């Protein structure tokens, strides 16, 4: 969602900074700079996994930071800081209108995902929404959410009929590990074309608005 269908606008980094400040990691310090670099590199990963890495061996601090992050992000959403990527809603509606099944996934907790969907008026936009806890808790870069989407919707009988779109390297790894036929990186979020291709992207798009056309061409080619 964030960076692919939802404009991030630096909200993840802002929420991260607010969260780690509660654990004594101040902006401008060497530790904050190091941790922020890891957050940027792991965009798309389950947030609790990120905090477990940052506070290795200290589960209490990881859980505290994760809860503070979700709370801070929720406040930003409530303050009206949440906007769709231009044309994203229309792209999802087009895909569904063509008979495709659309599942929106996130590395956020369910409460944050629901807050974003409500803020955008997207509660009923997709066929299904998933967060890491809905698929065993591991999140990306594991293939779990992609495969859970297939199992829950029963929309295909072959993993190669799945298309995964995302803005991060972890999105690409999740899609390739699930065996998706199309793994499309988009340039509206965290990572650039080189990073997306290095992580296994089969295509790189300017934005998710190009996905319906890509799928139509892919089907025509087959």
From TrEMBL:
GO molecular function, one term: phosphoglycolate phosphatase activity
Keywords: Hydrolase
Transmembrane segments: none
Superkingdom per UniProt: Bacteria
Gene3D superfamilies: HAD superfamily/HAD-like
Cellular component GO terms held in the UniProt record: cytosol
GO BP annotations listed: DNA repair
UniProt xrefs under Pfam families: Hydrolase (PF00702)
Hydrolase recorded as keyword: yes
Name of the featured protein: Phosphonatase-like hydrolase
């Amino acid at each position: 969602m964030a960076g692919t269908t939802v404009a991030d606008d630096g909200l993840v980094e802002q929420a991260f900074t607010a969260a780690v400040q509660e654990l004594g990691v101040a902006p401008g310090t060497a530790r904050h700079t190091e941790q922020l670099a890891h957050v940027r590199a792991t965009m798309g990963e389950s947030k609790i996994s990120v905090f477990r890495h940052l506070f290795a061996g200290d589960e209490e601090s990881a859980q505290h930071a994760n809860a503070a992050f979700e709370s801070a992000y929720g406040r930003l959403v409530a303050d009206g800081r949440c906007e769709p990527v231009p044309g994203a809603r229309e792209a999802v509606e087009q895909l569904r209108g063509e008979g495709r099944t659309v599942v929106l996934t996130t590395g956020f907790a369910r409460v944050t995902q629901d807050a974003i969907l409500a803020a955008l008026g997207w509660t009923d936009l997709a066929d299904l929404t998933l967060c890491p806890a809905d698929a065993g808790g591991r999140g990306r870069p594991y293939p779990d959410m992609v495969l859970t989407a297939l199992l829950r919707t029963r929309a295909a009988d072959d993993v190669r009929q799945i298309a995964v779109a995302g803005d991060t390297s972890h999105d690409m790894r999740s899609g390739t590990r699930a065996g998706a036929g199309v793994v499309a990186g988009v340039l509206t979020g965290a990572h650039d074309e080189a990073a997306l291709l290095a992580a296994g992207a089969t295509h790189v798009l300017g934005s998710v608005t190009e996905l319906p056309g890509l799928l139509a061409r892919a089907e025509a080619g087959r």
